[in-house]
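Long-time lurker. I teach an intro course on protein structure, and each term I like to show students one example going from raw sequence to a predicted 3D structure in token notation. This year I'd like something fresh instead of my usual example. Would anyone be willing to generate the tokens for the chain below so I can use it in lecture? Attribution to the forum is fine with me.
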Amino acid sequence: MTVRQVTEAPRRPERAQPRESRLRALDGLRLVAALMVAAYHYGGRGGEVTAAWGTSAKEQFPTLSGYFAYGCLGVQVFFVISGFVICMSGWGRPLKSFFASRASRLLPAYWVAVVLVTAVFALPVVAYKAVSPSDALVNLTMLQQPLGVDRVLGVCWTLWAEVRFYALFALCVVLPGASRRRVIMFCAGWTLAAALAQAARQPLLDVVLMPEYAPFFIGGVGLYLVHRDRRDVYAWGIVGVSFLIGQHYAVRSLWNATDPNAFAHRTTFGIVAVVAFGFLAVAAIALGWLNWADWKWLTVAGALTYPFYLVHEHLGWVVIHGLHIGLGLPSGETFALTVVAMLALAWLMNRYVEKPLTPKLRSALAKAH
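-- Reply from a regular --
Happy to contribute to a lecture. Here you go:
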């Protein structure tokens, strides 16, 4: 045995094995984020929902509208969750399998939501204007945002951000093969590139690198590394830097917003607090602190989140108008019943669209040459 062998400290393994138990708390957090966004769309902003209520949401919810206005940050919470989940699902998976998983997860419910909202808005009794048939067809591709086509679903802009994240992660991590070092380099490289894109003010770089949303996806990826090894200093560094940059973008875009339809009464502290909640909640899940929340109904809640998110805004307007203006129900009851109605529709979509079609589409795409 040599002197070097005696004195050299044993190396810690590169990465710890991930915890295998299902993260049901993450499913619950998904639904919380979706309900935050719904509260914003129903009672925390102006625009089209004003016609549904008959007056401004400020008048309908004099006290709560100020809190509902922060619900838009549910999108940022979604992005943190997405970074965690995509890194987890892409680890050790070949590119074709990763693509099949993502496409089959997003498309069936999305296609049905586009057709459903287009059909409902085309009804003579509905006051809202439907997009043209041509634009509705383009919406089925999920590329309406970059093509400048009218959107059927108001929330689909977030899906465009998700798709770009999937593409970056697939090319930089999944294609060459996921490893701790590669994921760290991806996070560091994207963070720096996004900062340079912000400084360069080049539209193409903004589209590809998404400086405003990158910190939330990257923070989620870093939290998955924490889930694999809570002692990983680099992972914690990624999370910390991502939070610091992410809260900056959130405050910049949402504090005193210039959009007349977005209530401009959020405080800087409130915005930072909600962003911190998103990071801390996913961190608590990553560290296993919420493993006690292992109730099976949370899995159901997670399954309803995506279809609920797709349909709640536009179809919610129709339900709000029917209940509040048509039937004369009070604002609070209308709000609660609209959320319940959209959750029920989400359950139907999950039961009769996602459950039968998702595995079939995933299998077909995975087998295709």
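Some talking points for your students: The first helix runs from residue 3 to 7. The two ends are 53 Å apart (CA to CA).
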